[in-house]
Amino acid sequence: MLEFLIPNNIVCHAVEAMLFASIACSVLGVIITHLNISSIGFTMTHAAFAGAAVGIFFGLDGTIAAILASLTIAAILGPLSEKARMSTDTILGVLFGMMMAIAIFFIAYMQYLGAGFNASALLFGNVTSLYREEIYALAVISVAAVLFVLIFFKEITAIIFDRRIAEAAGIRVRPIYYALLFMIAISVSLSLNIIGGLLLYVWLVTPAAIAYQFCTTVRGLFLSAPLVAGSVSVAGAWIGFQYSLPVGPLTAVAFSALFLMAVMISPKRRVPTGT
Amino acid sequence: MVGGTIDLAGIYTAYEGSDRPVLKNVSTSIASGEFVVVGGPNGAGKTTFLESINGMLPITHGQARVCGLDVTSHGYAVRRRVGYVIQNFAFDPLAPFTVRHVVMMGRYGLLGYGKQPGEDDRQAVDEAIHLLGIEDLEERPIGKLSGGQQQKVLIAQNLAKNPDILLLDEPFSNLDLCTRDFISEVLTGIADAGCTVVMVSHAFDALPTREIRILVMNDGHLSLDTCCPADEVEERVRTHSGGPHA
Description:
The complex is a heterodimer. Chain A is built from 12 helices and no strands. Chain A is mainly alpha-helical. In chain A, α1 (about 10-35) packs across α10, α2 runs antiparallel to α10 (about 200-210) and α3 (about 60-80) runs antiparallel to α9. The longest helix of chain A is centred in the first third of the chain and has 26 residues, at about 10-35. Chain B has a domain at about 5-90 and about 165-240: Rossmann fold (3-Layer(aba) Sandwich), CATH 3.40.50.300. Chains A and B meet through α7, α8 and α11 of A and α2 and α3 of B.
């Protein structure tokens, strides 16, 4: 898609993949951070990670297996997070530990068997060997994430303001919430190969957290988060290739540094001076 | 505003994941335009009572009809006609929501998916903001307001949807005495205009000077259902707040 700008095919595919993954994750990330369900996003990224490891072990497509695993977790987490009287945090902690254990078990076992499996791609991402279909799938999910926000903008803003107040206002909170979990599941599964299971969480939370330091409107948040995520991801991919550095970890570090700077210079955190 | 009716017939309400009902066999009928105060000790089921009326909590037995609609099968439709001012709200001081935006959210349930607020919605929001006297706060972030100002904003949000019934959970809890009187006047005005008002409260010094219907709850049961002048409400509630058979 961007071949007219970047003649090198590998770099071009990497930039496209990073761009689409960052748009999808950051747009959904704005909702995730405001609903205080970061731990749900965290658990789902690790479910995708575990699903991919299990799928590869059984000779299945890693991405399809990741989607199935994260959708299963989404189906469990939806009803679970609505039961206010249950300690969701504890159960998320258990699920997260279980997903991580499954992923590590299968990765270690494949390495023990000498199955020729490279675990680092699943852990930290790999942007050098992407199929065109993977990039198209990411493009579709990033467009779907943007459309989801555009169509349900007012419902989403009410829900992220206060879920109970939104429900009391007559908004159908549950379908929107379940659609959000579904979109997160698909987005993290498709982004897994590019960003890696251990770093994906950074894309879900940090761009939204950076945008939050500056934006005073919800519209501003939904515009700024993907802009920040896209710019940093594209720059990370380009610099990574130029200097032969690992793209995913490099971009994750850049996001974290930018977040610290944003907190320091945020106008929202400035204490008013004067008497 | 067109007042709405509430008809509860032997309802039981339990929280999801619990088999112990909070409301037990509650039956009452509230007519259009009534001003109802719900009293009783902490944990008696007062908030559960309100959230059973608007269908936010599931009714496990019995039947509830609000504005002529069955609450169990038409929860969303009921909530579009019933305002509910919640208790225990807390907003992030950095949250990107202005007062006007929050009041407009009261209209969102009426609009449907994909539709943006129009001139009618903006007018309803203007009127609600004017009624609560918060014009000067319109463009300020809600998280930076005092508890009392936030309470006014939430009342305005619910009035913006022109409810047939207004449910309020401890509306005076964050307010100073002057603001209590002001809110009391506002509530009297909307009740006079025909809106049914049902209010959970422990503060009886700011009730409107009109006949009040009192419901006293004890351990999930209704232990008193009567009418009296505003200045007798506190004594009646105290007398009947001892236990289910007091």
